[in-house]
Amino acid sequence: MSMFIKDGQLPEDILARKKAGTYVEETSPEAPAEEPVYVKPFSEFEEEDWYELYPKTDIMVRLKVHLLDTAVFYAIFAAIYFVLIPNTVFSVGTLIFWYLFAVYTNAAIFVTWPILFITNGFTPAKYFYKQRVVRMDGERLGLKDVIVRSLLIKGFCNAASCGIFNIVSIIFAYARPYHKALHDVAASTITLDIREKEEDKEKPVEFK
What we know:
Elements: H1 14-20, E1 23-25, E2 36-38, H2 47-53, H3 59-84, H4 92-105, H5 109-118, H6 124-129, E3 131-135, H7 143-160, H8 164-175, H9 182-187, E4 189-193, H10 195-199
Antiparallel strand pairs: 1-2, 3-4
Helix pairs in contact: 5-7
């Protein structure tokens, strides 16, 4: 599966919705093939509509995504630091402390947000665990969507609150039936689990 939007793992029948808008030709006992049948377009999708197409996201998988993205961010910055300041020695405890601090403060988001925009829904860890962020209306993630979702809400709000916002967002996600966190609510996005669709090898449908 490519990381880019043109290979967005949507079921094949959704292509007809994108092309035909609110109407699509379908054959069923209730409606002859020549009669149009109303199909809800992406612009009217709610959370439950998306989760009819994809399984509910596992909150533990999302935690693993967060930990892995932070590890990637941490490894890159540690490597840069040791190149710029060689012969620096840190204890194992210090390295663990700063990693946990990066996890708590969502520090990785300041690096991964442009990747989310470029790949239209993936970070390194999201790609590895087959989790994807999409707009509720099915359109391509815009720069504004990513900045609101990741940089402002997950990044600056969490940094300004010294990590408290992150804890509140986790509790908020646990309390909601589809585990939708505050940053997804603010940006009108949703995180989907696309693993089963990839395993079923359904033909991907292109987003805009």
